[in-house]
Amino acid sequence: MKDPESRTIFAGVDGRTDTELPEWYRQRRGNAEIVTFAEAIRELPQAVETTVAYQNPYTDEWVETERFNALVEPSRARSQAQKSDDETDPLFHIPTDSYSIINPVDVYGPLEEVLREETIDGTPLGEVMFGEIRRYRGGGEVHMDIMFDGLEVRLPGRSDPITMGVTSGYDFFGEHAVYVEGFAQDGYCSNTMRSLTDKEVIKHVGDVRNFRTWWEELLAQVELVADDLFEFIRDAQDIDLDFSELPFTVTEFYTLLGFPEYLAERAAGDAEANAASPFEIDMWTLHSGATYALTHFFQGKEGASLDQYVRIANDILFNPEGTIERVEQAYEEQLEGDGDDGSQASLAGERALASIERVSDDLQEKVGQFEEREDALRERFQEAMG
Question: What are the coiled-coil residue ranges (predicted)?
Answer without folding.
Answer: 353-380
